[in-house]
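Hi F.,

I've been meaning to write this up properly since the lab meeting, where we talked about keeping a consistent format for the predictions we share between groups. The idea is simple: the sequence comes first, exactly as it goes in, then the structure tokens exactly as they come out, then a line or two of notes. No screenshots and no reformatting. I'm using this chain as the first example so we have something concrete to point to.
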Amino acid sequence: MGHSVPPLSDKSLLKSQAYVNGEWVDAKSGKTFEVKDPSTHQLITTMPEMNREDTLAAISAAEAALPSFRQTTGRERARMLRKWFQLMTDNADDIAKLITWENGKPLADAKGEAAYAASFFEWFAEEAPRTYGDWIPASVKGNRVYTMKEPVGVCGLITPWNFPAAMITRKIGPALAAGCTVVAKSPGETPLTAAALAELAHRAGIPKGVVNFVTALGNTAEVGETLTSSPTVRKVSFTGSTGVGRLLMSQSAATLKKLSFELGGNAPFMVFDDADLDAAVAGAIASKFRSSGQTCVCANRIYVQEGIYDAFASAFVDKVKQFKVGGGYDAGVTHGPLIHGRAVAKVQAHVDDAVAQGAALLVGGQKLPDLGANFFAPTVLRDMRPDMQLAREETFGPVAGLFPFGTEADAVRAANAPEVGLAAYVFSRDVGRVQRVAEALDFGMVGVNTGLVSDPAAPFGGVKQSGFGREGSKYGIDEFQVVKMVTMGGMGGPLQGE
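Output, unedited:
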């Protein structure tokens, strides 16, 4: 089934090459891979299938650019980021069209992402001049001790397809603000948004070699291993699955890199009897079904206290029945396709497993082949149990499983059971309960009476096997800096002439 694609206002933002050392380049091998529209399976364009040799060239470009770029002042870097932010804002509609084209999310969602992505450049433009050190009172008489924060060096950045713009800016923003140069591995499924950002970096006057984009789909593992094994790359920031995070961490051990990983989630969404039911339903809808459930912080397990379980399920299903699934550009569409066939198969497996073990299917539960191969109906299951696949694994699709619970302790115990701990959500009007539960949850982020926690001002990241390090916020730039201590001896004593 065809879906019309609105043309870009600025056609020069659609690129079919990678961006290295300030130039648009092909893979040295000449190989390419196809970028397809997940709604229609139609070819959009091809991109360079880069390998180790291409990646090493990008690392060399970043290494050559580092000495001069790290000497720029924070204010100079702030102006570069501010200019890049302004260009993203001016071209937000085209960026959104590219996101929808290659990722599939509805255009309204894509416009939200374009603005959110730009906000990280704005935020870190404001942080760049404010990387303060400390003056430390020394224990030794006559010594003076101070610290300064310096850029860690060349950074390798690896980002996923589910937020083709925001995951990139959330890493590049603080890296550049700190004075680092970067080699970014574009998501194989969604490299076009990254290429548009590279074009805007070029226009913003970011010096050559400071920002490099390497593209690969089949060679993704090779590119990743090149970044992790290179002694030149001093820092790797990765967003993706826990399994790949483990692999990258082991590969980085030989060179003892600084790492920050934002890995898998399995977010619990807890609704207590005293919650505002309408607000809880709206929050669960926003959290669970944003981008058709393909976000690392989307509600995966929805725990509802027994007193309002039936009422919540009924109201929740009513909202889901109002969704309109279709191509991301089509008028009125609220939810688009999944990214590829493997994602559809996983979602179907989770639904089938739950139903086979006694869960009740309230709405959805099936593929939508009339729309296209990657479409799956928004689904709600009730009477879920902790041994079902959906409870134990991140579904990453439009399936909401409702679990009943009795007490606060029951809910927290169930919420904390998985090995991951990224985001959790709590809905209650009891301020004491909110505080108790938020403190007891083993997660890096807790949303209270809201289903959306993302904000450039807020630190984003997890605990346990959801990774370490924080992105965004005042903490985000720390991940791209090292602290240098200077001790000056012989500084005390009386003034000369006294």
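Notes:
The CA atoms of residues 220 and 243 lie 15 Å apart.
The two ends are 90 Å apart (CA to CA).

If this format works for you, I'll send the rest the same way.

G.
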